[in-house]
Design brief:
Mean pLDDT: 93
Number of strands: 0
Helix content: 25-40%
Shape: globular
Low-confidence stretches: 1-9
Length: about 280
């Protein structure tokens, strides 16, 4: 059953920003495309149900996804957008029994996912003592984003998502700069850097700017990433064994799921250690 938020008005309960597949009409298995690769065993077009999807909206190979060649499915996280679209935007009308809703539902899902991801970052930002002077702006952005998620399918489809995301991102960048400035010493700026396969074992990356950095298959064993900005960083197959991610800024469950780690990896309390580590 979908979680019902008890958060006060003007706030967002992070439990509502976690995927609840049991309350969703398998939107990620239908609305989104994927291509045959190391992450997916075959091609699938957007709007076409995955061949593994059952009539009850459950995955027929869920327990064997990685072994069957669908590691990409285990990495994906919708930030709770699936259940929001299924249960709120379309009031529980699924695309199988109400096929006229399918096109709108599949188009709205990616929009809702971005909005929920922004809610995740904004909610996190409000927990940082270093940005108290930005709390009014952060709360306004949070309220506006939450309001947008409550819009109709037509309103969501018509939304200028890029403009809204750019506006929020500017605020998140200011948040990042203030939080990272509290870390003593010189901080590394590797924003958008190509660090694919980089040897960063034991590196001091405290307070580093790693926004959008390509850290695919990078060796981050025992690296200190506390208070590093990881928004948009690509951590696929990065080795985080023994790494310290305490207080890492804007780290998501999807990023953790895509990486490799072990029991010694220090994970932020808001996130869950992936089962495959």
């Amino acid at each position: 059953m979908s979680h019902q938020s008890d958060a006060p008005s003007g706030e967002v309960d992070r439990l509502d920003l976690r995927s609840d597949c049991g309350s969703c009409f398998a939107l990620c298995c239908v609305a989104l495309p994927f291509a045959a690769s190391a992450d997916f065993a075959f091609d699938k077009d957007a709007g076409r149900p995955c061949r593994n999807l059952r009539e009850d909206f459950r995955c027929g190979v869920h327990a064997q996804l990685r072994g069957k060649g669908f590691s990409g499915c285990t990495v994906f996280d919708c930030f709770g957008a699936g259940q929001k679209v299924s249960r709120h935007t379309f009031a529980g009308r699924d695309w199988r029994r109400h096929p006229h809703t399918a096109a709108d539902m599949f188009a709205v899902f990616p929009v809702m996912r971005v909005l929920h991801e922004l809610l995740w970052y904004l909610t996190e930002s409000l927990a940082f003592p270093a940005v108290r002077s930005l709390h009014h702006e952060l709360r306004d952005a949070l309220d506006e984003t939450a309001r947008l998620t409550r819009g109709s399918a037509d309103e969501l489809r018509a939304l200028d998502l890029a403009a809204h995301r750019e506006k929020v991102n500017g605020l998140l960048l200011r948040t990042s700069e203030r939080v990272r400035s509290t870390v003593p010493g010189k901080k590394k700026n590797r924003r958008g850097a190509d660090l694919i396969g980089a040897r960063l074992r034991g590196a001091d990356l405290r307070g580093a700017n790693l926004r959008g950095a390509l850290l695919i298959a990078a060796d981050l064993t025992r690296a200190d990433l506390s208070a590093a900005d990881l928004i948009g960083a690509d951590l696929r197959d990065a080795d985080l064994s023994g790494a310290d991610l305490t207080g890492a800024l804007f780290l998501t469950q999807a990023q953790l799921n895509a990486a490799r780690g072990d029991t010694a990896t220090r994970v932020p309390s808001a996130l869950t250690r992936p089962a495959h580590w």
